[in-house]
Automatic annotation (TrEMBL):
BP term (GO), one: secondary metabolic process
Keywords for this protein: Hydrolase, Lyase
Pfam families cross-referenced by the UniProt entry: Amidohydro_2
Domain of life: Bacteria
Domain Amidohydrolase-related per the UniProt entry, residue ranges: 20-288
Gene3D superfamilies documented for this protein: Metal-dependent hydrolases (3.20.20.140)
Protein name as it appears in the record: Amidohydrolase
Record flagged with keyword NAD: no
Matching InterPro entries: ACMSD (IPR032465), Amidohydro-rel (IPR006680), Metal_Hydrolase (IPR032466)
GO MF, one annotated term: carboxy-lyase activity
CDD domains tied to this protein: metallo-dependent_hydrolases (cd01292)
Length: 289
């Protein structure tokens, strides 16, 4: 059975309209190729990371749609100053020509962020990306105070990669994020990759702050389990926090098939209600059609 057929069989069995994938990447071509180059080099430090869907943009879009994905994102992120605003312009143009993609944006701790984030919000941005690991910046940086305040007031979800996988950064881990939430407790953070490998610490934040969600990106797959196994002690909290766990894939930058990410969730055996919530309902609640 073709991969798309296998995924649609799951969708049909669950009785959901499709999949809401909150964690996908579409970027300017030269930026995407640099990201792929980074993952090509990961094999020198850890496990090989072949990009399964290393295709042109139009093929990637067609592939994602063939899987029954109804809503996705174009998560862009800077690694240096004077980059975020350019990425935001590209992402806005991409969303204009791609109606099933959430209008996406990003930021960096720089004086201009206090201006361009509200501009992006006013233009209809529905999801932001904060990559603490790649950006190697402190989320507590005073330059980000007006950014967090604007996002908290707007209630706009932020996918935040603050866990230390696949490689730790100077400000990764739950402690810096906890201090941001102390100052901005209503932030609608979505913890990327379930916070791997610091699962427990990020689950604690989700239990403490009702607007904090977690995305499943790469978690539970054989690839991730070999590096950062999900602790059995946290399994019960997957059910307790079930209505705030959303599906993410990291498409196209994954070293396995898209269907494997879905099968990994099925194999958790947490029930159809939990699974359908993760694959569709919880994401649709965050991002109404």
């Amino acid at each position: 059975m073709a991969e798309a057929d296998r995924i649609h069989a799951v969708i049909d069995e669950l009785g959901i309209p499709g999949i809401v994938d909150v964690h996908t990447h579409f970027m300017p071509d030269r930026v995407m190729r640099k990201v792929w180059h980074y993952f090509d080099g990961v094999a020198e430090r850890a496990a090989p990371w072949p990009i399964t869907y290393r295709h042109d943009e139009d093929v990637r879009l067609a592939t994602l749609r063939s899987f029954g994905v109804q809503t996705f994102s174009s998560l862009v992120y800077p690694h240096k100053p004077d980059m975020a605003q350019w990425l935001n312009t590209w992402a806005a143009e991409f969303a204009d020509r791609t109606p099933d993609c959430l209008r996406s944006a990003t930021f960096y701790p720089e004086p201009e962020a206090a201006r361009y984030v509200p501009v992006a919000l006013n233009a209809g941005t529905r999801i932001f990306k904060s990559h603490i690991q790649v950006g190697a910046y402190d989320p507590r940086d005073p330059l980000l105070d007006p950014v967090w305040s604007a996002l908290e007031a707007a209630g706009t979800p932020i996918i935040i990669h603050a866990g230390s996988g696949p490689e730790p950064g100077p400000y990764t881990g739950p402690a810096p994020v906890a201090q941001v939430l102390e100052r901005h407790p209503a932030l609608r953070l979505v913890i990327a990759h379930m916070g791997m490998p610091e699962y427990g610490g990020f689950f604690d934040l989700a239990q403490q702050y009702p607007n904090v969600h977690l995305d499943t990106t790469m978690a539970f797959t054989g690839f991730a389990e070999a590096m950062f196994p999900f602790p059995d002690a946290e399994r019960a909290r997957l059910l307790e926090l079930g209505d705030r766990i959303v599906f993410g894939s990291d498409f196209p930058n994954i070293p396995y098939r898209y269907s494997e990410a879905i099968q990994a969730l099925i194999d958790l055996d947490l029930g159809d209600r939990w699974l359908s919530g993760v694959l569709y309902r919880n994401g649709r609640r965050l991002f109404p059609a």
